[in-house]
Write a structure and sequence with these properties.
single chain, mainly beta, Thrombin, subunit H, 7-stranded antiparallel beta sheet, 6-stranded antiparallel barrel, 3 helices, globular, Peptidase_S1_PA, disulfide bond, serine-type endopeptidase activity, Peptidase_S1A
């Protein structure tokens, strides 16, 4: 199986981050660290660790045979491995095909066989400032074997465009991350509002090598693409609820990141020993 170069979409390459404000940059969303094991239930059990081509990401099961993820998670090459469920060794699958959105960072991954894991409902809610939800990510599994899927909290800030990045025209929901940090390797993961899928992780300020990296995630607003999701997945989708928030130009009104929690013992050790993986408990 291979995926067409004509339809492949890429955001920032690893190591690339363009300034947003005071050294803040936007790069592919990454692995949750300093987070907690996800609460057992549909949000965790519908999560999928996917490796398609040369990319490793997170996705969410929205029908028994369809995952929703970020378009830049469809990498180059023929590799296809998918593990569905909240534990490290989940239900194994392979990708049968992918459907890429023509203009935004969304993709649907079709499975050869239907999954027995629970699906999650699609949210029709247009996200607004102050809304709080749960984010889930599998990126920590890359460096920490046997870790279950991780979760943290995201607070919606703004609906923005012109985030300085390789995709400045993308309309995204800007969130501040609490109870964890986003790092590279976890794109495509879900933002849940009241247990419903409301956003897909597209970019973050991970990898900026400053005190605020991993504190901001930018999400594709699911409510703005309900027709495309329904048409290509068959998933039941609600009608939109509310109106899209006003669009803020992030070039004119830059993003300023919140200060993260003070360094932990694990943070100090990783600075002393490059390559040391995140160890649950040591860095919490």
């Amino acid at each position: 199986m291979s995926f067409s170069d004509k339809t492949r979409y890429r955001i920032a390459a690893a190591g690339t981050a363009l300034a947003v404000a005071a050294g803040l940059g936007a790069a592919p969303a990454g692995a949750l660290i300093k987070a907690t094991n996800a609460v057992p239930g549909p949000m965790a059990d519908s999560s999928a660790h996917i490796a398609i081509g040369n990319m490793s990401c997170t996705a969410t099961l929205i029908t028994p045979d369809t995952l929703l993820t970020a378009k830049h998670c469809i990498g180059q090459g023929n590799r296809s491995f998918i593990s569905i469920g909240g534990q490290h060794f989940g239900e194994a699958h392979q990708a049968k095909s992918v459907i890429l959105h023509p203009s935004v960072d969304l993709a649907l991954v079709k499975l050869y066989e239907p999954s027995r894991m629970p699906t999650v409902p699609i949210s029709g809610v247009h996200l607004a400032q102050g809304m709080t939800g749960t984010i889930i990510g599998w990126g920590g599994a890359v460096n920490t074997p046997f870790m279950p899927v991780q979760q943290a909290t995201a607070e919606v800030q703004r609906r923005v465009v012109h985030v300085p990045s390789p995709e400045p025209d993308a309309v995204l929901i800007e969130t501040f991350i609490k109870g964890g940090l986003i790092q590279r390797g976890d794109s495509g993961g879900p933002l849940f509002i009241d247990g419903q899928l409301a956003g897909i992780a597209s970019m973050s300020n991970a990898g900026d090598n400053n005190s605020v990296e991993g504190t901001i995630g930018w999400y594709v607003p699911v409510a703005e693409y309900l027709d495309w999701i329904r048409r290509h997945s068959g998933a039941p989708v609600p009608g939109p609820i509310g109106q899209p928030a006003p669009l803020v130009d992030a070039e004119k009104f830059p993003t300023y990141a919140p200060q993260p929690a003070p360094p932990t013992l694990g943070d100090t050790l990783r600075r002393m020993i490059p390559g040391l993986p995140y160890i649950p408990g040591l860095s919490s």
